[in-house]
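Service request form, structural biology core

Requester: graduate student, group of Dr. S.
Request type: structure prediction, single chain
Budget code: on file
Notes: please return the result as C-alpha coordinates.

Sequence provided:
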Amino acid sequence: MAKQRYVVALVRNSQEFSKANALLQGLVAGGTHVACLYVTTCDPKTFAHSRETLEWLRSHLLKDFSLPEDACETTLSQTLSVPCPVTGTTVAFPDFDIVAFYPHAINEVDPLYDPSVHAPFICLNQASDLYGFALYMREVMERAGGGDATNVLPQCAMQAMSQWNDMACKTINAFRKRTNPAVLHPAGVSEDGRHYLTPHNEAALHELEKKVYLSEMPRIYLTRLVGEWERQLTGQGSVRLGDVVRPAVCLSELGLQGLSSARRDPR
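Core staff response, request fulfilled:
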Protein backbone atom coordinates (compact mmCIF):
# COMPACT_ATOMS: atom_id res chain seq x y z
CA MET A 1 0.00 0.00 0.00
CA ALA A 2 2.78 2.44 0.91
CA LYS A 3 4.39 1.83 -2.48
CA GLN A 4 1.02 2.33 -4.24
CA ARG A 5 1.22 -1.15 -5.71
CA TYR A 6 -2.32 -2.13 -4.83
CA VAL A 7 -5.07 -1.76 -7.41
CA VAL A 8 -8.34 -0.73 -5.76
CA ALA A 9 -11.35 -1.48 -7.95
CA LEU A 10 -15.01 -0.70 -7.21
CA VAL A 11 -17.07 -3.54 -8.69
CA ARG A 12 -20.82 -4.07 -8.90
CA ASN A 13 -21.09 -7.29 -10.88
CA SER A 14 -19.15 -10.13 -12.48
CA GLN A 15 -18.44 -8.13 -15.63
CA GLU A 16 -16.75 -5.34 -13.68
CA PHE A 17 -14.86 -7.90 -11.64
CA SER A 18 -13.51 -9.50 -14.83
CA LYS A 19 -12.40 -6.11 -16.19
CA ALA A 20 -10.59 -5.27 -12.95
CA ASN A 21 -8.99 -8.70 -12.91
CA ALA A 22 -7.69 -8.21 -16.45
CA LEU A 23 -6.31 -4.81 -15.42
CA LEU A 24 -4.47 -6.39 -12.51
CA GLN A 25 -2.91 -9.03 -14.75
CA GLY A 26 -1.59 -6.34 -17.11
CA LEU A 27 -0.12 -4.28 -14.28
CA VAL A 28 1.53 -7.32 -12.70
CA ALA A 29 3.08 -8.17 -16.07
CA GLY A 30 4.43 -4.63 -16.17
CA GLY A 31 6.06 -5.04 -12.76
CA THR A 32 4.27 -2.07 -11.20
CA HIS A 33 1.59 -3.70 -9.03
CA VAL A 34 1.28 -6.79 -6.86
CA ALA A 35 -2.36 -7.10 -5.80
CA CYS A 36 -5.94 -5.92 -6.16
CA LEU A 37 -8.66 -5.11 -3.66
CA TYR A 38 -12.04 -5.61 -5.32
CA VAL A 39 -14.43 -3.47 -3.26
CA THR A 40 -18.11 -4.18 -3.82
CA THR A 41 -20.75 -1.47 -3.75
CA CYS A 42 -23.22 -3.80 -2.02
CA ASP A 43 -24.57 -2.64 1.35
CA PRO A 44 -23.40 -5.15 4.02
CA LYS A 45 -26.68 -4.60 5.91
CA THR A 46 -28.38 -6.49 3.08
CA PHE A 47 -27.18 -9.73 4.66
CA ALA A 48 -27.92 -11.06 8.13
CA HIS A 49 -24.71 -13.06 8.55
CA SER A 50 -21.48 -14.20 6.91
CA ARG A 51 -22.92 -17.17 5.03
CA GLU A 52 -25.39 -14.94 3.17
CA THR A 53 -22.56 -12.56 2.30
CA LEU A 54 -20.37 -15.36 0.97
CA GLU A 55 -23.21 -16.85 -1.05
CA TRP A 56 -23.79 -13.47 -2.70
CA LEU A 57 -20.11 -13.18 -3.59
CA ARG A 58 -20.12 -16.64 -5.16
CA SER A 59 -23.40 -16.30 -7.06
CA HIS A 60 -23.10 -12.66 -8.09
CA LEU A 61 -19.53 -11.40 -8.29
CA LEU A 62 -17.82 -14.72 -9.02
CA LYS A 63 -20.55 -16.45 -11.02
CA ASP A 64 -18.22 -16.87 -14.02
CA PHE A 65 -15.97 -19.19 -12.00
CA SER A 66 -16.77 -22.88 -11.56
CA LEU A 67 -17.14 -23.08 -7.78
CA PRO A 68 -18.55 -26.15 -6.03
CA GLU A 69 -21.78 -25.24 -4.26
CA ASP A 70 -21.46 -27.54 -1.26
CA ALA A 71 -17.76 -27.10 -0.47
CA CYS A 72 -16.82 -26.01 3.05
CA GLU A 73 -13.56 -24.73 1.67
CA THR A 74 -12.90 -23.33 -1.79
CA THR A 75 -9.54 -22.12 -3.03
CA LEU A 76 -9.72 -19.70 -5.94
CA SER A 77 -6.28 -18.96 -7.37
CA GLN A 78 -4.91 -17.72 -10.66
CA THR A 79 -1.51 -18.56 -12.10
CA LEU A 80 0.06 -15.54 -13.82
CA SER A 81 3.06 -16.07 -16.09
CA VAL A 82 4.94 -12.78 -15.90
CA PRO A 83 8.55 -11.54 -15.89
CA CYS A 84 10.20 -12.38 -12.58
CA PRO A 85 11.47 -9.20 -10.86
CA VAL A 86 14.64 -11.06 -9.80
CA THR A 87 15.66 -13.14 -12.81
CA GLY A 88 13.94 -11.19 -15.58
CA THR A 89 12.62 -14.39 -17.18
CA THR A 90 8.96 -15.33 -17.50
CA VAL A 91 7.84 -17.39 -14.51
CA ALA A 92 4.46 -18.89 -13.62
CA PHE A 93 3.45 -17.51 -10.21
CA PRO A 94 0.73 -19.94 -9.01
CA ASP A 95 -0.49 -18.21 -5.86
CA PHE A 96 -2.56 -15.18 -6.87
CA ASP A 97 -5.22 -16.22 -4.36
CA ILE A 98 -8.60 -14.53 -4.11
CA VAL A 99 -9.87 -14.24 -0.51
CA ALA A 100 -13.14 -12.83 0.81
CA PHE A 101 -13.35 -10.17 3.53
CA TYR A 102 -16.58 -8.87 5.06
CA PRO A 103 -17.98 -6.84 8.01
CA HIS A 104 -19.82 -9.76 9.62
CA ALA A 105 -16.51 -11.47 10.48
CA ILE A 106 -16.05 -9.18 13.50
CA ASN A 107 -19.36 -10.28 15.08
CA GLU A 108 -18.59 -12.82 17.83
CA VAL A 109 -22.03 -14.44 17.62
CA ASP A 110 -21.68 -15.06 13.89
CA PRO A 111 -20.78 -18.73 13.19
CA LEU A 112 -17.93 -17.53 10.96
CA TYR A 113 -16.51 -14.98 13.39
CA ASP A 114 -12.89 -14.36 12.42
CA PRO A 115 -11.26 -10.91 12.79
CA SER A 116 -8.51 -11.85 10.33
CA VAL A 117 -11.02 -11.69 7.44
CA HIS A 118 -12.84 -8.61 8.67
CA ALA A 119 -13.23 -5.49 6.53
CA PRO A 120 -15.64 -2.54 6.84
CA PHE A 121 -17.08 -3.43 3.42
CA ILE A 122 -17.63 -6.60 1.40
CA CYS A 123 -14.55 -7.15 -0.73
CA LEU A 124 -12.17 -9.64 -2.31
CA ASN A 125 -8.42 -9.41 -2.00
CA GLN A 126 -6.14 -10.96 -4.60
CA ALA A 127 -2.40 -11.16 -4.06
CA SER A 128 0.63 -13.39 -4.54
CA ASP A 129 3.04 -13.69 -1.64
CA LEU A 130 5.73 -15.09 -3.95
CA TYR A 131 5.45 -12.30 -6.49
CA GLY A 132 5.22 -9.68 -3.76
CA PHE A 133 8.42 -10.97 -2.20
CA ALA A 134 10.14 -11.11 -5.60
CA LEU A 135 9.40 -7.43 -6.14
CA TYR A 136 10.63 -6.63 -2.64
CA MET A 137 13.74 -8.71 -3.27
CA ARG A 138 14.47 -6.65 -6.37
CA GLU A 139 14.31 -3.47 -4.29
CA VAL A 140 16.73 -4.87 -1.70
CA MET A 141 19.17 -5.82 -4.46
CA GLU A 142 18.90 -2.36 -6.02
CA ARG A 143 19.61 -0.68 -2.68
CA ALA A 144 22.68 -2.90 -2.38
CA GLY A 145 24.03 -1.46 -5.60
CA GLY A 146 22.47 -3.82 -8.11
CA GLY A 147 24.91 -5.47 -10.46
CA ASP A 148 25.01 -9.15 -11.32
CA ALA A 149 22.08 -10.84 -9.58
CA THR A 150 24.14 -14.01 -9.13
CA ASN A 151 26.62 -12.14 -6.94
CA VAL A 152 24.28 -10.02 -4.83
CA LEU A 153 21.44 -12.52 -4.39
CA PRO A 154 22.84 -14.61 -1.49
CA GLN A 155 23.53 -11.69 0.85
CA CYS A 156 20.43 -9.72 -0.10
CA ALA A 157 18.23 -12.80 0.25
CA MET A 158 19.10 -13.25 3.93
CA GLN A 159 18.13 -9.64 4.66
CA ALA A 160 14.95 -9.70 2.58
CA MET A 161 13.73 -13.03 3.98
CA SER A 162 14.30 -11.89 7.55
CA GLN A 163 12.38 -8.66 7.00
CA TRP A 164 9.54 -10.44 5.17
CA ASN A 165 9.27 -13.00 7.96
CA ASP A 166 9.21 -10.24 10.60
CA MET A 167 6.33 -8.55 8.78
CA ALA A 168 4.43 -11.84 8.76
CA CYS A 169 5.00 -12.26 12.51
CA LYS A 170 3.65 -8.79 13.22
CA THR A 171 0.56 -9.48 11.11
CA ILE A 172 -0.13 -12.82 12.80
CA ASN A 173 0.33 -11.34 16.27
CA ALA A 174 -1.97 -8.44 15.41
CA PHE A 175 -4.74 -10.87 14.43
CA ARG A 176 -4.10 -12.88 17.59
CA LYS A 177 -4.63 -9.80 19.76
CA ARG A 178 -7.87 -8.94 17.94
CA THR A 179 -9.36 -12.41 18.41
CA ASN A 180 -11.43 -13.43 21.44
CA PRO A 181 -9.86 -16.78 22.44
CA ALA A 182 -13.07 -17.79 24.21
CA VAL A 183 -14.84 -17.85 20.84
CA LEU A 184 -12.18 -18.67 18.25
CA HIS A 185 -8.78 -20.34 18.35
CA PRO A 186 -6.43 -17.37 17.77
CA ALA A 187 -3.62 -17.25 15.24
CA GLY A 188 -0.11 -17.71 16.59
CA VAL A 189 3.50 -18.47 15.69
CA SER A 190 5.09 -21.69 16.92
CA GLU A 191 7.83 -21.54 19.56
CA ASP A 192 10.52 -22.44 17.05
CA GLY A 193 9.26 -19.80 14.61
CA ARG A 194 8.95 -22.25 11.73
CA HIS A 195 5.16 -22.56 11.56
CA TYR A 196 2.00 -20.72 12.55
CA LEU A 197 -1.61 -21.59 13.32
CA THR A 198 -4.70 -19.91 11.90
CA PRO A 199 -8.42 -20.57 12.46
CA HIS A 200 -8.91 -20.96 8.70
CA ASN A 201 -7.04 -21.81 5.52
CA GLU A 202 -5.54 -18.50 4.43
CA ALA A 203 -5.44 -19.53 0.78
CA ALA A 204 -9.16 -20.33 0.70
CA LEU A 205 -11.71 -17.98 -0.82
CA HIS A 206 -13.79 -18.61 2.28
CA GLU A 207 -14.83 -21.35 4.67
CA LEU A 208 -18.17 -22.48 6.04
CA GLU A 209 -16.64 -24.10 9.10
CA LYS A 210 -13.79 -22.82 11.23
CA LYS A 211 -10.89 -25.24 11.69
CA VAL A 212 -7.29 -24.83 12.82
CA TYR A 213 -4.65 -24.94 10.10
CA LEU A 214 -0.88 -25.26 10.28
CA SER A 215 1.25 -23.33 7.75
CA GLU A 216 4.94 -22.69 7.17
CA MET A 217 6.39 -19.30 8.02
CA PRO A 218 8.01 -17.31 5.18
CA ARG A 219 11.50 -18.11 6.48
CA ILE A 220 10.84 -21.74 5.43
CA TYR A 221 9.20 -21.50 2.03
CA LEU A 222 11.15 -18.45 0.86
CA THR A 223 14.34 -20.48 1.25
CA ARG A 224 12.94 -22.75 -1.48
CA LEU A 225 12.11 -19.73 -3.63
CA VAL A 226 15.62 -18.30 -3.36
CA GLY A 227 16.96 -21.75 -4.17
CA GLU A 228 14.96 -21.73 -7.40
CA TRP A 229 16.41 -18.34 -8.33
CA GLU A 230 19.93 -19.51 -7.61
CA ARG A 231 19.37 -22.63 -9.68
CA GLN A 232 18.36 -20.58 -12.72
CA LEU A 233 21.02 -17.91 -12.31
CA THR A 234 23.73 -20.57 -12.20
CA GLY A 235 22.40 -22.29 -15.31
CA GLN A 236 20.99 -25.37 -13.57
CA GLY A 237 17.43 -25.05 -14.85
CA SER A 238 14.39 -22.82 -15.00
CA VAL A 239 12.44 -21.53 -11.99
CA ARG A 240 9.59 -23.80 -10.88
CA LEU A 241 7.33 -22.46 -8.15
CA GLY A 242 4.65 -25.14 -7.94
CA ASP A 243 6.13 -26.76 -4.84
CA VAL A 244 7.60 -23.70 -3.11
CA VAL A 245 4.60 -22.93 -0.89
CA ARG A 246 3.21 -26.09 0.69
CA PRO A 247 -0.56 -26.23 1.34
CA ALA A 248 -1.77 -25.49 4.85
CA VAL A 249 -2.65 -28.64 6.82
CA CYS A 250 -5.85 -28.98 8.81
CA LEU A 251 -4.91 -30.36 12.23
CA SER A 252 -7.84 -32.76 12.23
CA GLU A 253 -6.16 -34.49 9.28
CA LEU A 254 -3.10 -35.00 11.48
CA GLY A 255 -5.21 -36.70 14.12
CA LEU A 256 -5.06 -33.71 16.51
CA GLN A 257 -8.78 -33.75 17.20
CA GLY A 258 -8.56 -31.43 20.19
CA LEU A 259 -7.34 -28.58 17.99
CA SER A 260 -9.24 -29.45 14.82
CA SER A 261 -12.14 -27.09 15.51
CA ALA A 262 -11.28 -23.41 15.64
CA ARG A 263 -14.75 -22.28 16.68
CA ARG A 264 -15.27 -22.57 20.41
CA ASP A 265 -18.46 -22.69 22.40
CA PRO A 266 -18.59 -19.33 24.24
CA ARG A 267 -20.69 -20.91 26.97
